[in-house]
Amino acid sequence: MLRLALAVVAGYVVFVVITLALFLGTGRDSHAAQSAAFMATSVVVGIVAAFAGGWLASQINAKPDVTASRVLAFMIAIGATVSMVSSRGSNWSQWAAILLLAPAALAGGITWLKRRA
């Protein structure tokens, strides 16, 4: 159980650091309306970050299932939902997290599992 928790935390850190670096590095607010080009770029970066986090979480957990990446995907979706409910402004990044980034975290774990087999 401790290994699972550490795996999920590590995957979440990867996801957060990469996505936070994008927004802080560009000086953009994830709750503000953005250009289509920036939204597309941030969604692609978010998908890659979530996929990497899910892959890492599954690798650290080292079990022949996708529990760690599933928990990570759930955390991403819940975090986005809480953010959407508690914030004012544009919700494009939260919708992207729920609909695209959370599934990408699970896909990272599935990919790790398939490569392991």
What topology emerges from the helices and strands here?
Layout: H1 2-26, H2 36-61, H3 67-86, H4 92-116
Helix pairs in contact: 1-2, 1-3, 2-3, 2-4, 3-4
Structure commentary:
The chain is mainly α. The chain has one domain (2-116). It is built from four helices and no strands. Helix 1 (2-26) packs across helix 3 and helix 2 packs parallel to helix 4 (92-116). The relative contact order is 0.20.
**How many discrete domains?**
1
What is the number of strand segments?
0
Order of helices and strands: HHHH
Roughly how many Å apart are the termini? 23 Å
Give the integer mean of the pLDDT values: 94
Main β-sheet description: none
> What is Rg?
14 Å
How much of the sequence lies in strands comes to under 5%
Enumerate how many helices there are, as a single number: 4
Tag the structure with descriptive keywords.
single chain; 117 residues; mainly alpha
Concise overview:
The chain has one domain (2-116).
